[in-house]
Amino acid sequence: MTTRLILVRHGETDWNLEGRYQGQADLPLNERGREQAKLLAERLRGERIEAIYASDLSRAFETAKIIAEALGHEVKILESLREVDTGVWTGLTLEEVESRYPRHLREWRADPLGVKRLEGESYLELFERTIAATREIVEAHPDQTVLIVGHGGNMKCIILDALGVGADRAIEIASRFASDNASLHILQYDEDGVLIQTLNDACHLDRLPKK
To answer: How far apart are CA 180 and CA 163, in angstroms?
Structure first.
């Protein structure tokens, strides 16, 4: 039994440009993000994709819908694929968090895996719900290729799990690879484990004007 997962991070939003924590704020794609999604759809036309799953947040769902319409598919929504809930940090830049919540930021930096954002989630909670959703998808689609459209946090959790990285090193290893807007990663699951075939591939965006 072999299942291929194509993981896609949503296209760009205005808050991505401004460096603001998005968390579970329901933000749409900006115009560049929509163009990125269209180029992703072109890139994926040659893939035999049997199912498409997406976070219910607008930036991920809109990215998935643009791809799904091009490929003739429906999008299956999974709330468990949402980004980490950044609580009161949502909408703020790092500089604003440093100014408003210095004590909490120090606590979070001391244990970013386990400490929850105020009124939000910890990265450990994000990791656990993302991996549970991913395993359910893999089990439901033996010998198929599945597209998952989510967020940077989800993408990194799935890749960390594929690498066999334990929670004690998750934050350290996650900082060593990127998951850019509208990039894709390809993983193959079989009886022997998980093979990472592609990581943070964004060559389909080369036609876009540089920022």
So the answer is: 19
pTM: 0.96
Q: Give buried/exposed letters for 44-70 (b at 16+ CB in 10 A, else e).
A: beeeebebbbbbebbbbbbbbbbbbee
Domain count for the chain: 1
- Cβ of 144: how many Cβ atoms within 10 Å? 17
Q: What is the pLDDT of residue 90?
A: 98
Any domain includes 210 = no
Range of the domain at 180: 3-205
What is the amino acid identity at position 139? E
List for the chain the helix, strand, coil content (%; round to 5). 45, 20, 35
Q: For the segment 37-63, what is each residue's pLDDT rounded down to a tens digit?
A: 999 999 999 899 999 999 999 999 999
Q: In terms of C-beta density within 10 A (0-12 exposed, 13-18 middle, 19 or more buried), how is residue 103 classed? A: exposed
Q: Which residues contact 78 (CB under 8 A, 6 or more apart)?
A: 53, 54, 55, 56, 133
Is residue 15 one of the residues assigned to a domain?
yes
Task: Find the CATH number of the domain harbouring 150.
Answer: 3.40.50.1240
- CA 122 – CA 33 distance, rounded (Å): 27
Catalytic residues: 10, 151
Assigned domain for 50 exists: yes
User: Are 187 and 197 contacting, i.e. CB atoms less than 8 angstroms apart?
Assistant: yes
